[in-house]
Protein 1
Amino acid sequence: MALMGKDTNAESSVMISVVIPVYNEEETLRPLVARLTETLEAIEEDYEVIFVDDGSRDSSPALLAEFHGANPKIKYVTLSRNFGHQVAISCGIDYASGAAVIAMDGDLQDPPEVLPGMISKWREGFEVVYAVRRRRKENIAKRAAYTAFYRLLSAVSYLDIPLDSGDFSLMDARVVEELKAMPERNRFVRGLRTWVGFKQTGYEYERSSRFAGESKYNFARLMRLAFDGLVSYSFVPLRMVSNFGLAVSFFAFLYMAYLIFARVLGNVVIQGWLSTVAIVLFLGGIQLLSLGIIGEYIGRIFDEVKQRPHYVVRAVNGLPQSPPGHRGHEV
Ligand code: UDP
Ligand code: MG
């Protein structure tokens, strides 16, 4: 089983760190590690792979232990439970000591063969190289939903989050340092990565379909992610609420003026109760919706002020006990 590892080379830094969150990926891990290490060995032997076991319940942890035993460059962090994709990536980044840190998924949707291209972009001087999907290989409904979301996000966000780029990216140590220093709990990694700035560039690739198993994002989790993106990087929903309030008040005022006017002229206007009920229900709906939108922001404020650690580490293998140079979530 996993040990609280005391590793001799724990403190040393490497050239390339690859961070991979893992949640029940037993079918994919073996081919992933084979393809990844082959690719890396060919271009840069000074690397580490940091898997973050995000509370897997299948044989993924045993596989990770096996990989670590066979190749000490493969290291892993075991979280105390499932904390979610974004938090798992953040955890891996916290532990990464590479001059460049690459975040990729563990389901082979992000092909390891793309890494050499991204690394050479970094060597050219770019501090962030984010992978851009040329074409998705998911079903039409999911693709449409993603496309709609990214367009909506870029329309309302105060950041220019690149279209069709996910978390698959390479970040220079400078960028990683800034990411680690960010205290926020809502870790929409691609947003944070855009926020820090530096020289960024896209790198096109063909996104594969999942190698095995099912996406861990169900509809509800995707909605949460989408809301995190929208609420954390946009004030447009809040502004919509006030604009709508203004518009409704304006029309109500016009209508009142009309009623008074009609009354004075002697045309007694008695409207049916139906219209009254419709208006009351409509406004009730709008008010609840507005409260909900404000609630989304307040909920996140509450989450932030609690200042809980982002994640709890159960064990580390091949890595220092607490991530080097990070603040805020020692365990
Ligand atoms: N993942 C994770 N924790 C979770 C959900 C997913 O660490 O709670 C990992 C998962 O094992 C995979 C990556 O995050 O390596 C992306 O997940 P998934 O493929 O389900 O997302 P999608 O590609 O559908 O966006
Ligand atoms: Mg996937």
Protein 2
Amino acid sequence: MKKKLAALLAMSLVATGALAGCGGNSDTQEDTTAQTQQNDAADANTAEGGTLRMGTNATFPPYETVDDSNNVVGIDPDIAQAVADKLGMKLEIINMEFDSLIPALSADQIDIAFAGMTVDPERAEQVDFTISYATGIQAIIVPEDSTIATVDDLKDKKVGVQTGTTGDMYCTDDLGEDHVQRFESGVVATQALVNGQIDAVVIDNEPAKAYVEANQGLKILDTEYTVEDYAAAVKKGNTELLDKVNKAMEELKADGTLDEIIANYIHE
Ligand code: ARG
């Protein structure tokens, strides 16, 4: 398992490089630069100042998605903004592959990852997690007429996951490499399910609901794969930022802001 994760991380390092050099992302890169420059100018006027560079993967509604104006919106950007406000910092959002987030933290390309990221002991060897702000459940999406009804029924099937997610880790461990197909996002994995290329998708329950709503003929199984805690992550050893963010998050938790932000997007 450790080896597998290390391989994944190594792969994603390459992906980070590819992302920076990829023409398709040049707009985002330019936007980011422009935003940073503005922020630098503004920083001169703020007492504490500084820019909090948040990395995320905006394919994961309602935690983060891209709106019609190409802005990254959702629970994580809102929480990060509230944290940045408390710290007197500007927030800059950098959208990247999910499995590039941890390498980007290590390489100082971002300061914090806010991405519905599950607290996991192996990840905790690479990054430091903040306090948890939400929980997620690994859900199983199948076609409405599927014979898959339980987790056990996934055996011998082809399951789609987002690369580097906990869904990927569990399915790879439980079903074996041959039964897992990795996609750049849950959106693309769900598309493959609709097209009949795979038998199920394992992904966190809230985005799963959004994907099922956006497509026809899919359902989420009642069975829950695992329950997980979400937290933000900073570079391993960056205790200065970790402490500041944790303090801000504790305050936002205590005064009800965190619950309020989540309730704006998730209506139970
Ligand atoms: N909670 C899962 C994990 O940590 C999935 C997170 C995916 N997040 C995203 N923004 N695409 O692995």
Protein 3
Amino acid sequence: MNTLLQYGFTDRIGALFSFHFPSGVQPGRIVRTDRGRVLVATTEGILHLDDAGSLATGDWVGLRGDGDRVVVGHLPRSTLLQRKRAYDPLSEAQALAANIDLLGVVVPLDRPLSTNRLERTLVAAWDSGAVPLVILTKADLTSRFDGVVAETVDRARGVEVLTTSAEAGDGLEHLRGRIGAGQTLALLGPSGAGKSSLINALAGDARQDTGEVRTTDGRGRHTTTARELVPLGDGAILMDTPGLRGFALWDAEDGLSRVFGDVEELFAGCRFRDCSHESEPGCAVQAAIAAGDLEERRWLSYRKMDRELASLHRRQDVAEQRRYGRAFHRVARDAAMAKDYRNRYREG
Ligand code: GDP
Ligand code: ZN
């Protein structure tokens, strides 16, 4: 089969492509990104090229040139999973995975359920725009934690839950059947959750010729690197990105509302509009906790993520202010002095 069809190229992508790029530009899909370099699946096989700037695994890109190909840009992304860059004072987003249709939140059955982690991962999953799916792994070990399946179904709040065992082969066909032709399923979950085993079990022999790619670097040396997109046939793809294993949220308010809609609905019932839901009289959140209608753990899980996003926005504002430079500082300084003046005036 044509390489690009294996990597999920469809008529829709073809149409978008001719709309966005001039004729002569060839299509490709990013199968891995690596500090300034990318691996691209093309009609000529897998190429190792320079990054055109912030490409993500799963991006559809345009390639120009005969002989030496150059990435000229990427198509608009249908979905995008991003995270906050680690150690970045300016708080910029890092694109992790693009054009994923399904996001599998992987939960292993060989240990107690981490509800906070499940909620956080679902927030990120909803926020990407892809359809979330909870994938329970290691079902053959479930007897040790009998309640985990039921608890996960309960906590997932309507998100579809599939049970699998890479070891025993259970549930694999059902999961494979959920990934339509030309669709990409990315797996999100902690290390040790069974993602690689699941990918190997689903890809079977295909994994052997897709797992590693021999490429030539600029100096003619051969290197081997793992692809992060694994074709399953029919253009169905599994995405395994190490960066997806655990990460800080980025602008995920929509995802937060999807997962915690019931909590946010309570706010309207608080007596004070600016209620901080701590100890104010007439707080609907505290009332719901006291009445046993809202778990305190769930409230704290929500508040932690909400504060994380608020602090992200404060840092974004600071970064924004720096960009505006001195003019902004003058205005900000004047505003601060004015506020200071008002405060003193009030006190005095
Ligand atoms: P990853 O870090 O998420 O990629 O997890 P791995 O696929 O490497 O699996 C972590 C461990 O769990 C390994 O020791 C696997 O052998 C084991 N494991 C994975 N899937 C299953 C399963 O279905 N059943 C059992 N019993 N063990 C599994
Ligand atoms: Zn309140």
Protein 4
Amino acid sequence: MASSAAVDVAGAGRQQALDGSNPAVARLRELIGGHESTAGWSRCWEEGVTPWDLGQPTPAVVELVQSGTLPAAGDATTVLVPGCGAGYDVVALSGHGRFVVGLDVCEAAIHKAKQLSAAAAGGDVGSNFFAFVAADFFTWEPPEPFHLIFDYTFFCALHPSMRAAWARRMADLLRLDGELITLMYLAEGQEAGPPFNTTVLDYEEVLNPLGFVITWIEDNEVAVEPRKGMEKIARWKRMAKSDY
Ligand code: SAH
């Protein structure tokens, strides 16, 4: 068992530990090379080294959708999922008046997301309420800012030196009255990344100066088994500029 795990660095669709003891995470770190590199992420997707990939929507996303508490702007709520990977959460968030854009810097990820979502829709892509875009979160310019942005395993995937820029992009890409939801994977004790060590304070340090405040935070009770006890979900709104 242990030896087969040592050679199997792919494993998309299985729930794996996201720490250095997992050979797939060790390989991911080799490919990313310790700094933020688009080429590194592309190599991961091309080699199938995607240990983060659950092969299904994140249970907390399914709960959020069922909770009926997501922003509702009539029939035209726009949602962005940056670093969407294979896009299960994009599809899960879509519909009921929500149009969701899944963004990933890797063409291979977007290709996979399109294939999987088309297969799930039985080929009927015309009526879908989502789209996938291959572009860099840090430079992409959408026509309009979004009502909702959902971040999961994107903040922790980025080198910590990118976090302030991540927050600035969130502010740019979100409407002033929009909501940011962060499902926070709080990796700790890691000597390298991704995923990089992350705390709630790390989010606050970059988001608070831009006026974002937490309106709700809870432990993620429905985290998948290897991530149990390591995740919190926070909802953020922006205060008026004069208040900060
Ligand atoms: N959220 C997904 C994938 C997490 S892995 C899931 O939970 O399955 C992080 C993803 O971010 C990878 O797919 C990687 O290709 C993407 N990524 C990394 N840097 C990016 C950037 N600058 N812009 C957009 N996507 C990026």
